[in-house]
Amino acid sequence: MINLSDIRLKLDRQSVLKGFDLDAESACVSLVVGPNGAGKSSSLKVACGLWRPSSGAVLVDGRDITDCPREYRKYVAYLPQSPSFHPRLTVAQVAEFYARIERCSPDEVEYALECFGMDACSGKRTGNLSGGFRQRLGLAVLSLSKAPVLLLDEPGLSLDPFWRERLQEWLREEAASGRTLIVATHLLAEWEGKADRCFLCDDGRIVGQLNPEYLRQAFPAPLDQRERKVAND
Ligand SMILES: Nc1ncnc2c1ncn2[C@@H]1O[C@H](COP(=O)(O)OP(=O)(O)OP(=O)(O)O)[C@@H](O)[C@H]1O
């Protein structure tokens, strides 16, 4: 499991995370939802060690890794929104590059590419891939990681319906194997009934949980909209 405890983060002198607390359990798919600018992506970037918080702690299975940059790669893998690769490298070359880092066998690489339907275009340069294919390559690369915690930022946005369903299936399989999965998303209708937990992020913190069975109706207006409504009433 991964715990983010009282994370505070400032970017350009603006407070972006303001005491962000999140406990995502092992063997679960946890969603982080919330309005634009709420801090979802920023929290994932802190959770994977890309951004260093001004205070707070990141713990994986009880181990505090906040001040151990090297530990992050071992425990946490992250797929950014719209992953990009060197445009002149082929799909196979990108997969092999990450496979070397992760010490994966050729069979594991083949399986990862097959899993996301990338085997048929393994000779294609990534600069010539469509957005959805590039996302699937990102997922294939993520699947090479052996980290116990996987963080995915809007992984389904550019995927067609078939691959969105495949992505959810894969995440469920990974959760069943004991991994901790956190998905930041706006695709509430598609996730309804498919996740174990759903955390609502607003204004730089987690402000509550939604019932993952009823996501469409439960999603409230962002805080500033709610404040405006109260002011108008
Ligand atoms: N690199 C950056 N430099 C400065 N401020 C940033 C940076 N990245 C994000 N922010 C600010 O941090 C706040 C939270 O942004 P973040 O991307 O985490 O929100 P989000 O919930 O993922 O939004 P969205 O749903 O629009 O993707 C916003 O106010 C944003 O302007």
CATH C-level label of the domain at 2-84 and 147-218: Alpha Beta
The low-pLDDT segments are none
Give the CATH H-level superfamily of the domain at 2-84 and 147-218.
P-loop containing nucleotide triphosphate hydrolases
| Radius of gyration (Å) | 18 Å
Q: Which word captures the global form? A: globular
Which CATH architecture of the domain at 2-84 and 147-218 is right?
3-Layer(aba) Sandwich
**Fraction of residues in helices?**
25-40%
Report the portion of residues in β strands.
25-35%
Averaged pLDDT: 93
Number of DSSP helical runs: 9
Q: Describe the biggest sheet?
A: 6 strands, mixed
CATH topology of the domain at 2-84 and 147-218: Rossmann fold
Element-by-element helix/strand order: EEEHEEHEHHHEHEHEEHH
In what order do the strands lie side by side in the largest sheet? Answer: 6-7-8-3-9-10
- Determine the structural class based on helices, strands and strand pairing: alpha/beta
Keywords: ATP-binding, Nucleotide-binding, Transport
Protein name: ABC transporter ATP-binding protein
Domain ABC transporter: 2-228
Pfam families: ABC_tran (PF00005)
